[in-house]
Design goal:
The protein contains 19 helices and no strands. By secondary structure, it is mostly helical. It has one domain: Up-down Bundle (Amino acid/polyamine transporter I), CATH 1.20.1740.10. It starts with 13 loop residues before the first helix and ends in an 8-residue tail after the last helix. Mean pLDDT is 82; it is low at 1-6 and 463-467.
Length: 468
């Protein structure tokens, strides 16, 4: 079956590609994750170590992805890579997982945090409170906290509509938001570290004296990985980037390095202003944000309000970037006949608008489920299955296509890709053991795609050879 569609237009240069990378990563994690990490490792030095190690692992994954992008860059990111490295079936499972669990869950969680931030600044009126106890199978409570959920859904709808107007407009908006966010974080670092309340020397002196427990460090890094999540999203819009074989690898490398530097500066500031017991207390309180309490130390209530607004802007920026890039996967799949056909169509602004709406609708339904903590851990589990497959793909293509042109080659081959694959395997096994419910949900959502794959193949009339 033929699919009528229009090719996307390459309008994004290197600068805007870097904005896509940073904008998809820099979300709520830079403000919130230091508290659960401190509660896990009980050491300022080990918290920073986890941020550094998490950043290094993320950077290795990005460098592996950069080599693949240099060879195969096109709209769809890993869907395109996996089709070349493995087969259509595995590529489909990746794209399907992004739709059911990975990327839509990211959008849902960011929208929910955004709505919660609005509620914290200006309490939202209660909505349908009489239905708060209505449940589905006694598990899902779609109307509990519906004022926040409705705000989150409305935000997704508005941003989805905005992004159907053209990618340059959307990325330009992301660039403006990102400038405010980076400027705000740097101001927090400058004023925080220069305040007389800061005690940076205590953080430095903690190095070499903290007890090291591998299991605690590994668990704390899960928080860091949530904060670093989204780094590969630039590959999804590669079909709209100028000279993608050069600019996609460069944007990945530069973007991840910038985020690592920002995370280290910001978290050093928090740890200089708040003790480990204070951070553990913030984590146990659940309704407090570490960055807000850190700024309150030197900025009082006015400073706390300012950073609350900054968190609002940051989350909005990351949510917006997520809605820009992630639906491009479904566009690429639909062009291959492996998703709902409407997703392959672009509107008069050369945007796959219907793919954006599919993404937005499912993300909104996930918000109503209310199972955000479970979905977040499940998302990390599912994502690292495919991150490991991506790094393994570098090794596969080096052996299968040794003479192919590679504008960028991952440094330290084959050691770094091999270590990254090993790390992903350990993380997956550890999650199955420590979080069997979340891992089980992730596996089920991935495997649900199997019957859909055969349905799409049969509908599209693909031959047996074309399915490979």
């Amino acid at each position: 079956m033929s699919i009528k569609s229009t090719d996307l237009i390459r309008t994004l240069g290197l600068k805007l590609a870097i904005v896509v990378v940073i904008g998809n990563i820099l979300g709520s994690g830079v403000y919130k994750k230091v508290a659960p990490m401190a509660a896990e490792v009980d050491s300022a030095a080990l918290v920073l170590f986890c941020w550094i190690l998490g950043g290094i692992v993320t950077l290795i994954g990005a460098l592996c992805s950069a080599e693949l992008a240099g060879m195969l860059a096109d709209t769809g990111g890993e869907f395109v890579y996996f089709k070349k490295i493995y087969n259509r079936f595995f590529a489909f499972l990746y794209g399907w997982s992004c739709f059911t669990a990975i990327k839509t869950t990211t959008t849902s969680a960011l929208a929910y945090v955004f709505a919660q931030s609005i509620h914290a600044i200006t309490p939202l009126p209660e909505l349908v409170s009489s239905l708060a106890d209505v449940s589905i199978f006694g598990i899902f409570y779609p109307f509990a906290g519906f004022n926040v959920k409705a705000t989150a859904i409305l935000t997704i709808v508005l941003l989805t509509f905005f992004n159907t107007r053209g990618i340059r407009i959307g990325v330009g908006f992301s660039s403006a938001l990102l400038g405010m966010v980076v400027g705000g974080i740097l101001l927090i670092v400058i004023f925080g570290l220069s305040s007389h309340e800061a005690n940076a020397s205590a953080v430095i002196n903690d190095f070499g004296t903290s007890p090291f427990q591998l299991s605690a460090v590994f668990t704390a890094m899960l928080s860091a990985f949530w904060a670093y999540e989204g780094w590969n999203s630039v590959g999804f819009v590669a079909g709209e980037i100028k000279d993608p074989n050069r600019n996609v690898p460069l944007s990945l490398t530069i973007g991840v390095l910038v985020v690592i530097a920002l995370y280290l500066l910001a978290n050093t500031t928090y740890l200089s202003l708040l003790s480990i017991p204070e951070l553990k207390s913030i984590f146990q309180a659940e309704n407090q944000i570490a960055a807000v309490e850190a700024v309150r130390v030197f900025g009082g209530s006015v400073g706390a309000l300012v950073i609350s607004i900054l968190i609002l802007i940051t989350t909005l920026g990351c949510l917006h970037a997520s809605i820009i890039s992630n639906p491009r996967i479904y566009y690429a799949m639909a062009k291959e006949g492996l998703f709902f056909l409407e997703s392959a169509r672009v509107n008069k602004f050369n945007v796959p608008a219907r793919a954006l709406w599919f993404h937005g609708i499912w993300a909104s339904l996930l918000i109503l489920s209310g199972t955000f903590d479970q979905l977040t851990e499940m998302m990390i589990f599912a994502a690292f299955i495919f991150y490991g497959a991506s790094a393994l793909g570098v090794i596969v293509l080096r052996r299968r296509m040794p003479e192919s042109h590679r504008p960028y080659k991952v440094w330290g081959y084959p050691i770094l890709p091999g270590l990254f694959v090993l790390f992903c395997a350990v993380l997956i096994v550890n999650t199955i053991i420590s979080r069997p419910r979340e891992a089980g949900i992730g596996i089920v959502l991935i495997l649900i795609g199997v019957p859909f794959y055969f349905y799409f193949v049969r509908r599209s009339g693909l031959s047996a050879s074309a399915r490979k």
